[in-house]
Amino acid sequence: MESILRVHERASRLRAKPSSDVIELSIYCDPATSDGDFAELVRTLEENGIEVTAYHPGRHHIAVRMTVEAVAAIFGVTLAEFVDDELGNFFAPDQEPTIPAELTKIVAILGLDSAPQAYPRFRPATQPSVSYLPSQVAKAYDFPTAPATGRSVALIELGGGFRQTDIINYFQTQGLPIPSVAAFSVDHGANDPTTPNSADAEVMLDIEVLGSVANGATIAVYFAPNTDRGFIDAISEASAATDPIPDAISISWGGPESTWAKSSLLLMQSVIAEATTRGITVTVAAGDNGSSDGVNDGLSHVDFPASAPNALACGGTHLELTPQGGIALQTVWNDTAIGDGATGGGVSAFFPLPDYQDHAGVPPSANPRGAVGRGVPDVAGNADPQTGYQILVDGTSIVVGGTSAVAPLVAGLIVQLTIATKAHQGLVQPTWYPLEQATRDSTTPAFYNITEGNNGAYQAHVGWNACTGLGSPYGDRLETNPS
């Protein structure tokens, strides 16, 4: 099993966690595990005195409850309590767990570290020069507009909540169908709306952008704790949904790749890959802090899970429209000079270059001795708070931007492509990358190349770049990608 330890350099150790405390863990086993071996693993856990509270063979997932004393006895891990100025109070292990011989099918243990893992990728506008409804942005990108009744999309939320009155008022005001929105609890997460300046703004941005593009679609919102366990469990549960299978999973949360444990990086990618195998496209915000991703070490970092090779990573642009609603100007979103963020993007230090980027011209990382890895993002869309989106949250109308607006925007496009092609889209990059190259110099390119601007370490240019990827998609020009 890969390392489960996260680095908490700034945290102060307070004390050992009381041995009688009970914690909940998620155990994931090798996807190649047979049903018989999975059942045997469950029995072995119970024979070791571990309380199994749920298990899902199709997700390779087992939920358990254990005392801290039992964790130490079975996995050889001592848990301690810490405090951090940014992360608050949490507990974490002092060393890597030891997996007993009879439990070697285990590939990941989540829940031993309770520190917050991710951040919402939205940014409230300070003094926006112009703002748009999501439907205006979708129209500028030539997204199809077929009714999406009967289609389904999942949103992953690690905090905040929504109010049904806001959803009704927002869509009624625009004369759009009111989407059916349902909340699902993962690991005790809950729909918990509070104020407009909380994570509620993220939740409502996701719902309102998605519902404006996929008119009438059912939106399943999975609320989970903001930990690596909650995050991964939520995606795993959402991707296993049936009746119907979601067309897309939209994720507007993330954190610098360097802050994730190796086992969590690998497991998250595995879970996302399984979703794409089922035909589900997973759209992920690429981050709002430029090429540093908010890490103050002078190096470049990419955001995760956007850097997962099976995620469709979504970067950000500054978009200005003509009076007729067409694109007048589109550049890289970079407002760092006024403290309003910039699109994430760069080269992964963990994941190798995927096959679909073999001919994209992904450069070596801007870091010293940087290698070529998975390039982020894949596509981009309007994300600048100065040209942001008009949303309604907790009864208040505000303008917000961030790459978290692009993830649900592109998820809505995936729904429209699913309707048009009568096929789930799944992993679209193997089709989209060659399509961009083939149509780049034509009169009807499939993507609007963004060639002006930078996100810090990386400069925009014709073709794929580490600021805006392939560019913004012209929705009605994309070829089919049936699963």
Descriptive notes:
By secondary structure, the chain is an alpha/beta fold. The chain folds into two domains: 12-110, Alpha-Beta Plaits, CATH 3.30.70; 119-477, Rossmann fold (3-Layer(aba) Sandwich). The protein is 22% helix and 26% strand. It has helices spanning 35-47, 68-75, 134-140, 164-174, 200-213, 228-239, 262-277, 406-421, 429-439; strands at 12-16, 22-29, 51-56, 61-67, 79-84, 88-93, 106-110, 119-120, 123-124, 152-157, 180-185, 218-223, 248-251, 253-256, 281-285, 303-304, 312-321, 327-332, 346-352, 373-376, 379-382, 389-393, 396-401, 447-448, 472-473. The strands form seven sheets. Strands 10, 11, 12, 13, 15, 17, 18 and 21 form an eight-stranded mixed β-sheet that branches. Strands 3-4-2-7 form a four-stranded antiparallel β-sheet, with helices on both faces. The longest helix has 16 residues, at 262-277. It is globular, with a radius of gyration of 22 Å. The relative contact order is 0.14.
Largest sheet: 8 strands, mixed
CATH topology of the largest domain: Rossmann fold
In whole angstroms, how far apart are the ends?
31 Å
What is the number of E strands?
25
Total number of distinct structural domains: 2
Topology:
Blueprint: E1 12-16, E2 22-29, H1 35-47, E3 51-56, E4 61-67, H2 68-75, E5 79-84, E6 88-93, E7 106-110, E8 119-120, E9 123-124, H3 134-140, E10 152-157, H4 164-174, E11 180-185, H5 200-213, E12 218-223, H6 228-239, E13 248-251, E14 253-256, H7 262-277, E15 281-285, E16 303-304, E17 312-321, E18 327-332, E19 346-352, E20 373-376, E21 379-382, E22 389-393, E23 396-401, H8 406-421, H9 429-439, E24 447-448, E25 472-473
Helix pairs in contact: 4-5, 5-8, 6-7
